[in-house]
Amino acid sequence: MAVRTVSNLRKGEKGVIKSFSDKGMSLKLLEMGCLPGSEVRLDAIAPFGDPICINVGGCYCLSLRLNEAAVIEIE
Amino acid sequence: MKQSNIKVALVGNPNAGKSTLFNALTGLRQKTGNFPGVTVEKKSGTFRLTDSDTSSTTVTVVDLPGTYSIYPKSRDETVVMDILANPKHPDFPDVVVVVVDASNLQRNLLLFTEISDLGMPAVLALNMLDVAASMNLTVNAVQLAMQLHVPVVKINARTGEGIGKLKEAVRQVSAVKEKSLPNYFYEPKGNEVELIEEVKGLYALDNDYVALQYVCQHDNFSFLEQPVRAKLDTLIEKYGFDENNFLAEETIARYEKIKPIISKAVKTEGQTEQPYWTRKLDSILLHPFWGYVTFAAVLILVFQAIFAWASYPMDMLDAATAATIEWVKETLPQGVLNDLITDGILAGIGGVIIFIPQIAILFALVSILEESGYMARVMVIMDKLMRKFGLNGRSVVPLISGVACAVPAIMTTRSISSRYERLLTILVTPLMSCSARLPIYAILIALVVPETKVFGFLNTQGLVLFGLYLLGLVGALGSAWLLSLFIPRKEPSYFMLEMPSYKLPRWGQVGFTMYDSVKSFVFEAGKIIMAISIILWVLASYGPGDNIEKAEQQVVSEMSGQPQQEIDVAIASAKLESSYAGQFGRFIEPVIKPLGYDWKIGIALLASFAAREVFVGTMATIYSISGDFEDVPTVKERLVKEKNAETGGAMFTPAVCYSLLMFYVFAMMCMSTIAVVYRETHGWKWPIIQLIYLMTLAYVSAFAVYQLMS
């Protein structure tokens, strides 16, 4: 089965961050508090399906584009 | 009394409340807002600490742009490390106050540990404890202080709570004279250790982490010379240092250190998520359908307010200005001075002063959008649309603030991380109709659009105004798309944006923004308007040689026997035509004739080249010199009565007015904007391209509209 990423989440669905598939983007995500092991939940989808808003670790809300979300692999 | 000085820098994540704290500390009114990236350049202010009866300390506070780490991702963030890594920098602080958002402590502490490792004496200011409390998070400040080895002060930057204690903590930390090396949160691994030692030896550094920053960030450090940078590059090669890997590993290692600290210092019993109403509001405001409906409703409300609500105070100001001019005209002795004051200065200023209510309302509403946290949501719902035009969701902020003024708006583009998207945003922001255009729109709309209602409640004039703003927006997006075809994109584009919780706007802050915008409009714009009005009055009242007298005599001889009043009007008009200003107007008339303008409008057009707010005042001056009226009319009445010399009909026909409107929607008539684009793009290339592009666009559109309508 293909690797699931945050961009595959449905609204309200949860996942746990496993790793990142892009080096450059992973640093920015880490600095913004997306850590491996944190739980994320898809909270909102903007009009036209992109960007999306995810809740990270029950703590704060982060908005990111689908291609950015596709970098975050979850389990 | 003994005097001493210390410097303090405010550092922290975006939207942690640094600028609000800065205002609370210094009593200044630095711009704040509830979304990441409000502050894009450093700002300084001072406060005084009284140490004892005999000595006091002046503390200079520098407010820095927010950043998630010391590794900058966009132009605004580079300034932070440029100061902190360079002890010779004039702003290099004695104490760093790290402002953290207590509701997201783990992430906020990442930056703190980096600052601490740089060896900066620090104080941790715990802000947003109320948000944390609403999420059932309790932070134990004493425990946190013990774990981090720094003073921790609980503050509420919005209410000013804890500010006294924070100042006291700053004094104590600054009093510690001997500097010791920090307990590093990050311990270098493998051959990083030898690399660090070599860099420390070469550049006489004692701090490991500063040495590491020389390795990682030397290209961002303006204080390092080219040979130093080249040498550091060879070292990177020698040790096979992989920067990307290192940065990710360093960040993860820091979080590993932070986690146990958090679990000791933060109680999370029954933790809930972002405040309930933030999630509730988001489900509507980010909704695929209702999100856009709300956004459109907000915009329409803004334009309704500008036209409908503002009309009452405007009518009063208009009447008051006319009355003042009349009173001065009758009170002062007749003569040149009387003419200069009434026709030159008062006419020019009066023409502009009546727009104060509109500008106040516009700035207040934009400020409410920024303070509430809604701006961040607008960036989200607009991102996909913006991307189609080569822009970014973040471009929404400069575009919306461009409605107030393009100069600060262009500076806010610094938070856009992609240089390409930032450039495009800079180039098209002046197309957004700024507040200086509002007086021009208002007067021209009042001339040609009837004051009626559509659907019983929408003001027609308000709708046309909305249409002009919309045209500006369409022009901006279309131009971005057009320019994106010619400018190559070099780097990937990011959006990633933290959503702040909604907050009630602080009315004091909104009120101050209103007051400040009106003040700068009246004084800054007023100065230019007054200067240009006086110059224009002189140029319009005097002419080369005895041209003016000749013109007068000619009219008198030609029109003898006709009613005295008509002769007077004809004389005034002939005098203006043969004045210096008249000759300038005549000179450019061939160029603007295809747009439907005569030489009088040409004078106003030329005068407003440096700043468009001059246009209405100039028109008022020109028409009060050329007209000779029984009582003093308002600017609008003067324009209505103006006759076209060729047709004999009204000068300001719908075709001419719409052509002028078109011209001012697109034209780049603002020296300050050109200057800020020069500064932000580091050269003349882009401001020149922008000027030529926008002027061509303005000319062609005005031409097309005039030709189609007449």
Characteristic terms for this protein:
A: 75 residues, alpha+beta, 5 strands, globular, B: 710 residues, alpha/beta, Rossmann fold, six-stranded mixed beta sheet, two-stranded antiparallel ribbon, 31 helices, 11 strands, 60% helix, elongated
3D shape of chain B: elongated
What is the gyration radius of chain B calculated from CA atoms? Answer: 30 Å
The CATH H-level superfamily of chain A is Ferrous iron transport protein A (FeoA)
State the distance separating the first and last CA atoms of chain A: 12 Å
Count of the domains of chain A: 1
- How far do the termini of chain B sit from each other? 77 Å
Instruction: Specify the structural class of chain B.
Output: alpha/beta
**DSSP summary, beta strand count of chain B:** 11
Tell me which CATH architecture of the domain at 1-273 in chain B applies here. Answer: 3-Layer(aba) Sandwich
The quaternary state of the protein chains shown equals heterodimer
Give the second-level CATH assignment, the architecture of chain A.
Roll
Q: In terms of per-residue confidence, which ranges of chain B show pLDDT below 50 for 5 or more consecutive residues?
A: none
Number of helices of chain A: 2
Look at the structure and name the CATH superfamily of the domain at 1-273 in chain B.
P-loop containing nucleotide triphosphate hydrolases
Q: Can you describe what's shown?
A:
The complex is a heterodimer of chains A (75) and B (710). Chain A has 75 residues and is an alpha+beta fold. Chain A has one domain (6-74): Ferrous iron transport protein A (FeoA) (SH3 type barrels), CATH 2.30.30.90. Helices cover 17% and strands 36% of the residues of chain A. Chain A has two helices and five strands. Chain A has helices at residues 23-31, 66-69; strands at residues 14-20, 39-45, 52-56, 60-64, 72-74. Chain A has a five-stranded antiparallel sheet. In chain A, strand 3 and strand 4 form a beta hairpin. The radius of gyration of chain A is 11 Å and the shape is globular. In chain A, 49% of the residues are buried. The model of chain A has no long low-confidence stretch (mean pLDDT 89). With 710 residues, chain B is an alpha/beta fold. Among the domains of chain B are: 1-273, Rossmann fold; 525-652, no CATH class. In chain B, 60% of the residues lie in helices and 8% in strands. Chain B has 31 helices and eleven strands. In chain B, the strands form three sheets. A six-stranded mixed sheet of chain B has the order 2-3-1-4-5-7. In chain B, 47% of the residues are buried. Chains A and B meet through helix 1, strand 2 and strand 4 of A and helix 3, helix 10, helix 11, helix 16 and strand 11 of B. Strand 4 of chain A pairs antiparallel with strand 11 (497-499) of chain B, so a sheet runs across the interface.
